[in-house]
Amino acid sequence: MATEVKLPRLGQGMESGTIVKWLKSEGEPVEKGEALYELDTDKVTQEVEAEASGVLLKIAVPEGEVEVGRTVGFIGSEGEDAPASAEKPAEAPKREPEREEGRAAAREAEAQRETPSGGSATNGRIKASPLARRIARERGIELSRVSGTGPDGRIVAEDVEHARARPEPVAPAPAGGVESRPLSNVRRTIARRLTQAWTVPAFQLTVDVEMTRANELVAGQRQLNPDVRITVTDLLTTVCAQGLMRHRDMNVQYTDGALLVFPSAGVGIAVAAPQGLVVPVVHGAERLTMAQIAEVRGDLVSRARDGKLRAEDLEGGTFTISNLGMYDVDQFVAVLNPPQASILAVGATREQVVPRLGELRVVPLMTVTLTCDHRAVDGATGAEFLKTIKTFLEDPGLAL
């Protein structure tokens, strides 16, 4: 008897997803755990695995937006007939006209570019991840000229990033022409959450931190753990996690009926990924060493940039770190990441002249700014937490 392929719920609050592309064709063998189709949710684009082995008898929904739990296909035995309900493909919910026009234009342009003359192709269609296609469109890269390093020669994001952009077209674009890019589910989610954050009454606290000992500790950790790339962000994650455990009133979320106080520190790391800002979470950070945090952080950042984050990677955060120091930003104010009650904005470390014991000394200083949801956190509570973070960074041994 055929097994129904239903759209899964990949995270809390997920009600629907958009099928981007099927990775298997009707009549093609399928193994349990094998990637079946690509699904775009409001958080990530990821491959959905088959829950049964057999033959893909019928694709009920070729592409488009589908609600959770809906049957999108059938897997059965070879030679078995597809259920009658699958004879007529299910009609996907209607999408917004602007979004549909954008998707149609993108598919048409993509179809024109994808020819079997080069790249990794199957039946004339180039095999590439959604993120790789998106980067290729944004950078003007011909997918047919890119060699894939993924499974079965599939093109992944890194392949596109290493490829050279195609030359500008001979015919220039009309003067003043405006490019219309349809909003992805991730971009819509970013817009919705930041708008929500802007309505929250918040306050900011800023301190300068001397990073002499912190930099020495990071350098020492790198020598002790040569196989792991340890960064200042990993030290920040360590001290923030320990600080949250000392100041439990900071590890909270506001709800209409209560304050939720969490027993563990889920520290989110803001990552600028090609598809937009994402915040993967280092779960149970207070229980991890700095080297372990570095391993987890490195894996999360890598998968974020390749568009391979899972829904569970983005859930369970209680605090966020946004570090723009690598972009030479001295100081900034980060917007809250709802429903979290606080976020730490980290600037670059600069050599500055400061008075010390009646003398002028040159020391590395880093400016950090804490933003708090005033409904959940009082000013004094935030100040005490920030003081602890400053103390831990200036004398990291206290946090280890």
Question: Can you characterise this structure?
Answer:
The chain has 400 residues and is of the alpha+beta class. It is built from eight helices and 20 strands. It has helices at 97-113, 130-139, 157-162, 185-198, 212-224, 232-246, 290-305, 379-394, and strands at residues 3-6, 16-22, 29-30, 35-40, 45-49, 54-59, 64-67, 71-76, 121-122, 125-126, 202-210, 252-254, 259-261, 267-269, 271-273, 276-278, 281-282, 319-323, 342-356, 359-373. It has a six-stranded mixed sheet. Helix 6 (232-246) crosses helix 7 (290-305) and helix 6 packs across helix 8 (379-394). The protein is elongated, with a radius of gyration of 25 Å. Mean pLDDT is 83; it is low at 86-99, 104-119 and 165-170.
Q: Structural class given helices, strands, pairing?
A: alpha+beta
Mean pLDDT: 83
Output the number of helix runs: 8
What string gives the helices and strands in order? EEEEEEEEHEEHHHEHHEEEEEEHEEEH
Low-confidence stretches: 86-99, 104-119, 165-170
Please count the beta strands (DSSP E, at least 2 residues each): 20
Give a quick set of tags describing it.
about 400 residues, alpha+beta, six-stranded mixed beta sheet, 8 helices
Brief summary:
The chain has helices at residues 97-113, 130-139, 157-162, 185-198, 212-224, 232-246, 290-305, 379-394, and strands at residues 3-6, 16-22, 29-30, 35-40, 45-49, 54-59, 64-67, 71-76, 121-122, 125-126, 202-210, 252-254, 259-261, 267-269, 271-273, 276-278, 281-282, 319-323, 342-356, 359-373. By secondary structure, the protein is of the alpha+beta class.
